[in-house]
Design goal:
Distance between the termini: 143 Å
Strand content: under 5%
Helix content: 40-55%
Shape: rod-shaped
Number of helices: 4
Order of helices and strands: HEEHHH
Largest sheet: 2 strands, antiparallel
Structural class: mainly alpha
Amino acid sequence: MQERRPHPLLAQVPLTVSPFISLPTATTLPYTYKSLPSTLPPSSTGEDNGTDKPKYVVSASGHAAHPDEIIASCKALQAHLQKIQDDADRTIREWEDGIKERELAEKRRLAPGWLDREEKILEPAKKRNNVATASAGMVPEPNIMDSQDGGPAVRSLTEEKAAEGEELDRAFGGMGLR
């Protein structure tokens, strides 16, 4: 049997009774209580409890990992960043191609057929040299803008134009302006 004598050191501590302190009471367990098994099932959070490689690299925040896990995480991050970069490049290419297509459609709307053919329909005529035409036996036509004094060449040219207008009036009849 045990002795009911207190320990000599505890006997020296005075006890006080206070109305403000309540000592804990034993809880009564329900009849449906079942004790926990001695071994727990694996964690459902995805963390391995030491079954994998030891996690001996510890960060300043307290996160521990194995070097292989760190390398795998870095490779996954690199692949993700490369995918994002490829998507951005593809989006920019599509955007630039769309701009080019809209510009081409506008050009085709303004001049249909111009971009689709090798031969260009609208080519500017090359200026002829007056000396070359005179030597070939052709008489060069005087230009009104070349003469500054309004000489006989200019007067004859304006008279020719007036005569053409009169011929048209005779052929089609005079059309009065209203």
